[in-house]
Amino acid sequence: MLDVAPTELLLVAVVALVVIGPKDLPRAMRFVGQWIARARGVARHFRSGLDEMVRQAELEEMEKKWAADNERIMREHPPQPALIDHASDAEMVPLGGPPSEALPAPDGPELIEDAVPVDGSPSPAPAQPDMFGTDRPAGATKPVGHDPLP
Predict the structure, then answer these.
(1) DSSP annotation of 76
(2) Are 22 and 31 in contact (CB under 8 A)?
(3) Per-residue burial over 53-89, b = 16 or more CB atoms within 10 Å of its CB, e = otherwise
(4) In sequence order, which residues have a C-beta less than 8 Å from that of residue 94 and are 6 or more positions away?
(5) Which residues have a Cβ under 8 Å from the Cβ of 84 and sit 6 or more positions away?
(6) Residue 23 in this model has a pLDDT that exceeds 50
(7) Are 89 and 99 in contact (CB under 8 A)?
(8) Confidence of residue 140 (pLDDT cuts 50, 70, 90)
(9) In degrees rounded to 5, what are phi and psi of residue 16?
């Protein structure tokens, strides 16, 4: 900014000492120091105002970019039709309207006991917990050599 060499500062100090005098020099230096502090404060305030304006401009630019990206994404991936509750919490119908054949809601859980696999093979026996808490199919024997109790 200001290129002041040490020799130039020494010359100014000697001239100030001669012109102002040694008696009033401390008061004059204090006065100059106060003015320099005020000038620095004004420059700092001005710089922070400019920085704030730049930050606001960048923020607005980013908001515009995000809005454009959001609009592009919404065009590429439109929202799916939501389900609307027409009757109760148990019966949900899509926006297209009620289905042509509505299935009745089951009264309770349905138990299928003797289910047979589609290929016709017999179903495995249900697992039963043994005394160690492990599940083993019904009729299975204990592994040999792993019986801790005789």
Answers:
(1) H
(2) no
(3) eeeeeeeeeeeeeeeeeeeeeeeeeeeeeeeeeeeee
(4) 81, 83, 84
(5) 92, 93, 94, 95
(6) yes
(7) no
(8) low
(9) -65, -40
CA distance 95 to 84: 7
Question: Tokens 């401009």 label which residue?
Answer: 57
Indicate if the alpha-carbon torsion angle 48, 53, 58, 60 is positive or negative. Answer: positive
Residue 45 pLDDT > 80, yes or no?
A: yes
Pair 138, 126: CB distance under 8 Å: yes
Q: Which amino acid is at 66?
A: W
Type of residue found at 94: P
Residue carrying structure tokens 């949900």: 92
* pLDDT reported for residue 80: 79
* Residue carrying structure tokens 């050599």: 145
Task: Decide: helix, strand or coil at residue 51.
Answer: helix
In whole angstroms, give the CA distance from residue 45 to residue 33: 18
